[in-house]
Amino acid sequence: MEVEMEVFVVKENKKIIFDGYAYTVHHNLVSSIRWKCSNKISKKCPDILVTSNNYKNPTIEVEHSHAGDANLETVEKSKAEMLKRVSTFSTSTPSQIFAEVINQVPEQALTSFANEETTKRMLRRKKNKDERFLLFDNGPESNERIIIFSLDEGLVHLSEADTWLLGNFKLCPDFFLQLYVIRVKKYDKFITPLFCLLQNETRNTYEEMFTAIFNKCFENNVYPDPKIMNMDFEQVVIQAAKTVIGEHLIIQGCFYHLCQSTHRKLQKLGSQNKYNHDNVFSHYYSMIDGLAFLPV
Question: Which ranges carry the FLYWCH-type domain (predicted)?
């Protein structure tokens, strides 16, 4: 009588479960497959199983040296379901998928599961491997090239944040003028879910950048609605943000750039030398930046 066996794919190798034991391919023969126990090394198990090429007619040639696990098939099916959902449900986190599947596992099989964090780490690796990172590219023919990178999970983080922190860096690949990033607060930490390479610093570039971000969010069924943006004092960025997002958007200037701006004004007025040598003047000058912390 032919017995069908569950087959699970692990990377490029095939793995089967039979009668409470896991096997991996040992040799592929013309009309059959020889399998070795997955614990061959760790438990020095000599077991050899032979099946037909379509995984039927299992015959044990050498017995196992250790006990099997009756829950192994249930565990492997549950892990396969988790991995499937990671690839299918882009907006669900590994932790959410783990919880959803584990709640359906019979209680007697829970003890056969690996450590929870180990399983979640497996799901995170799978999610990061499968998920695309390039979000938007307006093409090499564009006079204002824009390339945006973000994971689907990053778009979710953007949609959940009321405050966006914008930053730009000159350190970027040749051909581009700057690297623009958006940071948000998540779990009491600041993360960077989105990166933009910009060829220019024009208002049109920033408007296209913000428009592309929102359109991609909408395509993924997430709907960002930032109330506050913290950025430097570039008027073209402020104007672009309010054009795309709305006049209700509250702009908060970056304190670092405020200090830079007041220092440039000091130099323009020819007061740098007085600032360096007059303690009273430098003290009162420094208080100008402190005005930013007074309540409105």
Answer: 11-66
